[in-house]
Write a structure and sequence with these properties.
The complex is a heterodimer of chains A (131) and B (187).
Chain A: E1 4-9, H1 14-29, E2 33-38, H2 63-69, H3 75-84, E3 88-92, H4 93-99, E4 111-113, H5 115-122, E5 128-130
Chain B: E1 6-10, H1 17-26, E2 34-39, H2 44-55, E3 58-65, E4 68-74, E5 89-91, H3 92-101, E6 104-107, H4 111-115, E7 123-124, E8 143-146, H5 151-162, E9 168-172
Classes of the chains: A alpha/beta (131), B alpha/beta (187).
Family (chain B): Belongs to the sulfur carrier protein TusA family.
Pfam families (chain B): Rhodanese, TusA
Domain Rhodanese (chain B): 99-184
Chain lengths: 131, 187
């Protein structure tokens, strides 16, 4: 049985962030080796400023109350927890170049790599998830 | 009350926090100890069950008290390579007939495991307490020692034998493979 979980984060909304980081922390807590490849809008999820206030989908703003009521951790908290549990973050070099971003624009502890960096990790991962 | 070695307060936390906290808390337990996870997340029961299975710990059971879910997990490893040494053994099937005539079934699992499912009429003395509770056992009676997989009962049977209990048998393969009904004892 594979002990790796590979995740591609390619969208930058608040819901996307929860899907990515909830699965990632749950997998890491279950002693899986986890890597997330952040590409295109997915880079928002680890961008120092953007991650602090990720947008809700349009007309879904009322969920904010539900998030508070359910005592769901904030995205920065989940990110910290994921890193604490050893989840590997890989920023997509190509997208960063396109967007004019450098490693310093992102939280500490990320790796920057190309598609092959992720593929190398994902080749024997099960499952590989895309959000 | 069900006895546990460590209690974790995960009340009010949403998924995946109960799992993350459980994973961290588990690091501080030694093998064989029992963790009680207190949670209000309704999904935590199935999550913890799946988590324990995946990681290799033993999920014992869950009960609800004042709208709080209390989950019990015993820290274990997946090592089934232990070779049983005690020679007097008896099968799960045989023991029921034997004990109908004479003797007792002695369950040496932890109290929490016993509470969530045991053979009706069996006596509970957790392995760790056996040494101090020998006076509760009768030398002239057959003692059929049982646990989940036959490992703890193997140790217990050896110990009893050394202490002069000669009519001791290890029940194999144990409660983990029990086909009959099991009783619960919880308040």
């Amino acid at each position: 049985m594979s002990n790796k979980v590979a995740i591609i984060a390619s969208n930058g909304g608040l819901f996307d962030a929860y899907k990515v980081f909830n699965i990632a922390t749950a997998a890491a807590a279950t002693e899986k080796e986890v890597a997330i490849f952040f590409t295109f809008e997915g880079l928002n999820l680890i961008h120092k400023q953007a991650m602090q206030q990720l947008p809700m989908p349009k007309a879904r703003e009322h969920f904010a109350e539900g998030f508070a009521k359910a005592n769901v951790p904030s995205i920065p908290q989940l990110v910290e927890m994921a890193q604490d549990l050893g989840v590997k973050f890989i920023g997509c070099q190509m997208t960063m170049d396109v967007m004019g971003l450098t490693k310093d624009d992102f939280i500490n502890g990320i790796e920057v790599g190309g598609a092959v960096t992720f593929l190398e990790f994902a080749k024997d991962a099960s499952p590989t998830l895309t959000f | 009350m069900i006895k546990s070695d460590v209690q974790l307060d995960a009340k009010g936390l949403a998924c995946p926090m109960p799992i993350v906290k459980t994973k961290k808390a588990m690091n501080d337990l030694t093998e064989g100890q029992i963790l009680e996870v207190q949670a209000t997340d309704k999904g935590s029961t199935t999550d913890l069950k799946a988590w324990a299975k995946s990681v290799g710990h033993q999920y014992i059971g869950t009960r609800e008290e004042d709208n709080v879910l209390l989950h019990y997990i015993r820290k274990s490893n997946d090592d089934n390579s232990y070779e049983k040494q005690f020679e007097q053994t008896i099968t799960n099937e045989e023991v029921i007939n034997r004990v109908a005539n004479s003797g007792i079934i002695l369950d040496v699992r932890e109290e929490a495991e016993y509470a969530f499912g045991h053979i009706e009429g069996s006596k509970s003395i957790p392995m760790g307490e056996l040494e101090d509770r020998l006076d509760e056992l009768n030398h002239d009676e057959e003692i059929y020692v049982i646990c989940r997989t036959g490992t703890r009962s193997d140790f217990a049977a050896q110990k009893l034998f050394k202490k002069g209990f000669t009519k001791v048998y290890n029940v194999l393969p144990g409660i983990g493979s029990w086909n009959g009904n099991l009783s619960k004892s919880m308040k």
